């Protein structure tokens, strides 16, 4: 510290902080105890294919960390000394992708059952002095980035990193010690340069090198620290935690799509509530994600009201589905999180004299512009969410042919699950969700009786209520307005374009493709507990 102060007073430049290279340690099977049954045969096949061709290759990163913890990894990444072009030449279906980091996707299988093994080349450990600096970011400096291999922006964030190097340097440029582990499934050895094996066993998340410098290189490491701590139940080591709040403003320079993707990972990897709590502990709950700003209170917690309970139930059920190996979709989860914001704007527009249906359409557009922004894949995400939201007032119209048309909609099951969740949270009368469940599962005689019942109830009912923010009765729409203006076809028409939504295409509330009669496929909804129990209908709508 004194040396830094003297150099500053004398006008001398500070020496670059060097990340330690570490020392190679090979750990045998008797010590690491990785269960071969947890390995992915296609990941092993990629490693063997590269080693048979004369290259070094290892399963790397989070997969090794999870294997050491006795978990079956979701993804199996491979690191090798082969260049992307050499990797591509070894496999029939391999594709080079990326600009910031050039990697290879080796694809096995087709359709929804396909699997991608991501293969990266060992990268060199370079300092900022070795890099070329540009003003601006990926979008504003595209011309300056053309043809360059190692580039940083004015804050030190890495914009390009495609300089190959030895494995020891590749390990040093990774973020946390538990992610800098390499596993050779052929020889069954773990290669550890930075004590990652010991940290994994102690459940400690430790940054390799100087944390502040590493956060400057890539501010998204801040969010990765939060996610891994929540997901793994690890403690963030004090030196790694100390600069987090001071470095958080650097996240403003990261592309919106990447920030959005990290938020989805925080909320959809099975530990959403733990992730929200970890964000709060690190002082990051508010101000980073506009979607969370719409949900959390000033203290960074879910509010103690109907909408807070609604979101909590949705997140709890998402976590449960992930734990059970079932699919989830960002569209359903985000529709739950932003529903309160949509309701508030919808009510203001109606109070201003707008008709209920156009007011809901305008409210949805306003929420997307304010909370989601212009990100890749927004069109698909927006269409799914809009359809779920626009379906809600249609559930109140239970006469004529409307109910028959509604249950035939491809997204009916997602819309109904949303309705059932609202009922469980206490926002609407559970009898409405029960009626729709019975109607969807009933035969023609049962449906006719239910329609007669609804007609009689409507005849005896009083004045219709208007939308109430935060709960109350389901929003009412004048007779005929919904059928005329909110058809399933027009509701999804949004001139908008999310990589995270691609896998959800064509999926329904239970992660299955929409069939000829999606309503009849759903299993019977659990009845809400009188005191607001935690058992909710499926919160994931197929990823």
TrEMBL record:
Which segments constitute the Polymerase A arginine-rich C-terminal domain?
353-466
The Poly A polymerase head domain is annotated at 57-206
What EC number(s) is this enzyme filed under?
A: 2.7.7.19
Locations of Low complexity compositional bias? 530-543
- Enumerate the spans annotated as tRNA nucleotidyltransferase/poly(A) polymerase RNA and SrmB- binding domain: 233-294
Q: Which residues form the active site?
A: 75, 77, 175
Keyword Transferase in record: yes
Q: Where is the composition biased (Basic residues)?
A: 519-529
The reactions it catalyses are: RNA(n) + ATP = RNA(n)-3'-adenine ribonucleotide + diphosphate
What GO molecular function terms would the record report? ATP binding; poly(A) RNA polymerase activity; RNA binding
InterPro entries per the record? NT_sf, PolA_pol_head_dom, PolA_pol_I, PolyA_pol_arg_C_dom, PolyA_RNA-bd, tRNA_ntf/polyA_polymerase_I
One BP annotation, GO: polyadenylation-dependent RNA catabolic process
Q: Which UniProt keywords apply?
A: ATP-binding, mRNA processing, Nucleotide-binding, RNA-binding, Transcription, Transferase
Q: Where is this region: Disordered?
A: 454-478, 503-543
Q: Which family does it belong to?
A: Belongs to the tRNA nucleotidyltransferase/poly(A) polymerase family.
Q: What does this protein's UniProt record list under function?
A: Adds poly(A) tail to the 3' end of many RNAs, which usually targets these RNAs for decay. Plays a significant role in the global control of gene expression, through influencing the rate of transcript degradation, and in the general RNA quality control.
Looking up PANTHER family in the UniProt record yields: POLYNUCLEOTIDE ADENYLYLTRANSFERASE FAMILY PROTEIN
Q: What is this protein called?
A: Poly(A) polymerase I
